[in-house]
Every structure is written in C-alpha cells, then in structure tokens.
Amino acid sequence: xxxxxxxxxxxxxxxxxxxxxxxxxxxxxxxxxxxxxxxxxxxxxxxxxxxxxxxxxxxxxxxxxxxxxxxxxxxxxxxxxxxxxxxxxxxxxxxxxxxxxxxxxxxxxxxxxxxxxxxxxxxxxxxxxxxxxxxxxxxxxxxxxxxxxxxxxxxxxxxxxxxxxxxxxxxxxxxxxxxxxxxxxxxxxxxxxxxxxxxxxxxxxxxxxxxxxxxxxxxxxxxxxxxxxxxxxxxxxxxxxxxxxxxxxxxxxx
Length: 254
What we know:
Blueprint: E1 4-6, E2 12-18, E3 22-25, E4 35-37, E5 39-42, E6 49-53, E7 58-64, H1 66-73, E8 84-85, H2 88-91, H3 95-105, H4 109-126, H5 132-143, H6 150-157, H7 161-171, H8 176-190, H9 199-205, H10 211-222, H11 226-234, E9 243-244, E10 247-248, E11 250-252
Antiparallel strand pairs: 1-6, 1-11, 2-5, 2-7, 3-4, 3-6, 5-8, 9-10
Helix pairs in contact: 1-4, 3-4, 5-6, 9-10
Pfam family, one: HTH_18
Keywords: DNA-binding, Transcription, Transcription regulation
InterPro entries: AraC_XylS_family_regulators, Homeodomain-like_sf, HTH_AraC
C-alpha cells in the first residue's frame, strides 16, 4: 500500500500485526529498507513519521487517548513521548506473541474485536487511575482544541502551574503547551477544506496569532506548509487508518 505520513495527534497508538511488517522511515530514508515493525506502541509525537507495508501485512490498530494509554500501559507516559517501542517492553515478555496468535487464529474480524475487548478490559482492570486534576484539564483543553493557557488551566483546576506540568508529563506524556499545539494543529487540519477564505482566516479561527504562526506550526509538526498538507489530505480518504475521533492522523505521501 502507499506510504503514509503519520501526523502528530493527541493519541497513543498500539499496532499488533502479522504477515509482512510495517516499515518506518526516518527523515530522508524513504528509499531505504527502514525499520521493520510487526508490532509497536507509539507515544505522542511532535514530528511526523513515514511508514507503509510492502506486502500483505495484517494488523489491528488501537488509538488510545493519552489517559487511556496511561490506564492500560501503566507507565509514566513521558517515557513514550516521541518514541516507538515494542509492546513487550511495556506489557511483559511474550505478551505480543500471545495476542497475535489469538488474533491471527480468530475466524473473522468480529471475533478479533472481541479478543481485543477482553485484553484491553484486563489491562484497564490492573492499571492506574488517572488524577482527577489531569482528567479535568485534559477534558477542558481538548474541548477547546488547545485554546487554553497553562495559567487558565491552573486556575480552573485549582492546582499550581508547576504541579499541573508534572502531572501532564506523567499521565499525558508531553508538556501541556506541546499538547495544546498538537490539538490546535489538528483543529486547523480537520476543518472543512475551503471553509475559510484564506489561511489568515483559518489561523484566526483556530487560535493562531496570525498566518505566520500557522505556517510555523505546520512546518514544525508536519514538515509541510498548510497548502501542501491540505493538498495531501484532499487525496487521502478519511478511513479508519487516517482518522480517529475527528482527527486526521495520516495522509498519503505522494
């Protein structure tokens, strides 16, 4: 299948696969073999990742909210920030092998979803409970598409800015300002194309200071200008591999 550029989004991804592996490429490596992954966990990122299957790879993908990942994986989420690791490093030796075997042997996809439901429910039962302060801050920040400052969130949650940053690092993975930046980027990327007359209007609608601020964030987070990225988005269907809860998580790399 065509290579996809995975974009920064406020999700933590678990992929468990069988068949041919997923190849991930670093900057400038698209013509090389890349790193081969049959299964992986990818944390919140502030840069894009290029990857694709070269053969008949089969996999299931679970996209967690950061707090959902914290509850299921049971680790301090900053260890996953901008990282890709094998699931066994987090969940124990042969965890992936046992799950992959059950998924591969399931008679159909409905049975595979049942397997996943059972596994995730077991992880949740044994996992930590997130701080109510972080849960409230995350809910407010995501509802506003990143449009709240650290000071504002500290005020509404009744916690100091430093304490809130510590909790975000542990249970979300990235600094609050970085998470807000990603949420704002996703808001700009998922508004209907052409719904604003200019990039300056799009910037204003999404909470950027001006068009230059929008351009800088797109280049930093995606390596592309807004026009380039919107062009790729228009040629990528919003199927299950490109969209999660209204976020555009990837585009075809043309």
